[in-house]
């Protein structure tokens, strides 16, 4: 009876492992999730310190104006992301331990073709409201402590994200604001010919 019980238990374990491995991708098989960019938001950033940080108020120093653009999908949700993580999990046992599951890659269907920035307030006596100031901004790549022109940044292929369903771009103004207020309009042209536009709040310059 004991032999029969042990044999039945062993058969059940083998069946369970085979069932899981047949239904789920094995370790190393990357689950790719694609989404459409159809929404844009802008956040204030603080560039006054050593590193860029989020700014919760509409106040910035005249030589530390910065923003973060977020390009995302209205349809794609965090629930889908976590569902994809469950899908990417697999039971693949080795003699010593179980291998870790692969993280899903989250990839936008569109790329950014162009970013245009218009100042909606006078920046100085030379730069009036309505002027295209795209060349006055740089993209901050904090991971490498680099600041690059926007057009150079857009030449680099977009890398997949592993923890979010959005693209984030940190932009810093390299020109001093010679006014008591500032406001900007960001226009992003995508590879599918769609344009996304967002205005910043009115920023008090201190």
Characteristic terms for this protein:
206 residues, three-stranded mixed beta sheet, 34% strand, globular, disordered N terminus
Describe this structure in words.
The protein is α+β, with helices and mostly antiparallel strands. It is built from three helices and 14 strands. The strands form four sheets. The protein has a six-stranded antiparallel β-sheet with strand order 3-2-5-10-8-9. Strands 4-14-11 form a three-stranded mixed β-sheet, with no helix packed on it. Strands 7-12-13 form a three-stranded antiparallel β-sheet, with no helix packed on it. It is globular and about 55 Å long.
Structural class: alpha+beta
Distance between the ends: 84 Å
List unreliable stretches of 5+ residues.
Answer: 1-7, 10-24, 88-99
Largest sheet geometry: 6 strands, antiparallel
Task: Indicate the percent of residues in helices.
Answer: 10-25%
Radius of gyration: 24 Å
Order of H and E elements = HEEEEEHEEEEHEEEEE
Average pLDDT number: 81
Beta-strand level of the residues, as a percent range?
25-35%
Number of strands: 14
Based on Cα principal axes, name the global outline.
globular
Query: Helical segment tally?
Result: 3
Number of domains: 1
Q: Spatial order of the strands in the main sheet?
A: 3-2-5-10-8-9
């Amino acid at each position: 009876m004991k032999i029969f019980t042990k044999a039945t238990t062993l058969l059940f374990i083998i069946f369970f492992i085979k069932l899981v491995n047949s239904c789920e991708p094995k370790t190393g098989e990357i689950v790719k999730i694609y989404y459409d960019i159809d929404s844009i938001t802008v956040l204030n950033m603080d560039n006054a310190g050593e590193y860029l940080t989020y700014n919760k108020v509409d106040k910035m120093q005249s030589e530390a104006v910065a923003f973060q653009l977020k390009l995302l999908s209205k349809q794609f949700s965090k629930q889908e992301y976590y569902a994809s993580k469950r899908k990417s999990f697999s039971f693949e046992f080795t003699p010593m331990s179980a291998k870790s599951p692969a993280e899903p890659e989250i990839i936008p269907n569109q790329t950014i073709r162009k970013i245009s920035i218009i100042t909606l307030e006078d920046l100085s006596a030379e730069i009036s409201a309505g002027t295209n100031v795209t060349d006055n901004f740089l993209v901050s790549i904090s991971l490498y402590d680099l600041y690059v022109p926007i057009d150079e940044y857009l030449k680099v292929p977009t890398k997949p994200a592993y923890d979010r369903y959005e693209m984030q771009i940190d932009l810093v103004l390299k020109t001093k604001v010679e006014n008591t207020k500032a406001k900007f309009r960001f226009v992003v042209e995508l590879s599918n010919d769609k344009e996304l536009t967002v205005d910043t709040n009115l920023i008090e310059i201190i």
